Amino acid sequence: xxxxxxxxxxxxxxxxxxxxxxxxxxxxxxxxxxxxxxxxxxxxxxxxxxxxxxxxxxxxxxxxxxxxxxxxxxxxxxxxxxxxxxxxxxxxxxxxxxxxxxxxxxxxxxxxxxxxxxxxxxxxxxxxxxxxxxxxxxxxxxxxxxxxxxxxxxxxxxxxxxxxxxxxxxxxxxxxxxxxxxxxxxxxxxxxxxxxxxxxxxxxxxxxxxxxxxxxxxxxxxxxxxxxxxxxxxxxxxxxxxxxxxxxxxxxxxxxxxxxxxxxxxxxxxxxxxxxxxxxxxxxxxxxxxxxxxxxxxxxxxxxxxxxxxxxxxxxxxxxxxxxxxxxxxxxxxxxxxxxxxxxxxxxxx
Length: 350
Known about the structure:
8 strands
């Protein structure tokens, strides 16, 4: 069935210049599907390590909890497991103009627009990044350990999931499953922020109900510290964008000089100071260790920019998480019935 879906999608998109890319990525997806094994088969296999079996059981449990929590019918997602040859499943390439922080979008008929392109092959990802660099873009390539096909295929458990601890795994599964119950075309940034927000909010109730409250509090302390740093990065990104708008760099070299000065004189010192204040060792202070450029800043915003807005709106409405989900779903239905506002993110927060 998935192969038939793939054939139809390629046929419909066959007239566009992106056919080679689509063919290569579709071949990668078919490979994931074809090498997948039923979860029960994996659990019975004596060659599968007990630690991996425990992760599969945990994911099955998280899936049941998620759909029961939202009162939704379970789908076939995560009914099979794929053992990867590499640690990452795909590699994302983000490209941004050198003079501003803005992810270039690539659009596909039927599927909408995305602020990145994904590649199953790292060499292909690097080749594409080089091509965009030659076109005067700034690029960033990052590994991906989980993703959603948004219902086009039946997603499988990936062996890359096994590297996460219980807290990270629960957040990951809730995030990816949220895409199966709510998704807005051409709004990748809002989709990711919504999935992030609802996944994180579900963790409190999940770990409380499973009698892991002490473990939750330890993880939440680290999460709160990370949230403080993530918010700083978002604010610094806005500040750097302001520098570009004021200085109007004409070349990549001019833009790089602006970025370097900002990172060395403002970004890194203040981030490091904050990490010291909250007792995070420099080696664990993620914004310091990360390689930053316009593309990586743009990618960061894709997942973090709207988080405060979503939290603020829920508090303003005084709704619990289920009520908040119903509110957003209703607003989206209203949005589709009107034509004055073209972006749901603007409609939601107006």
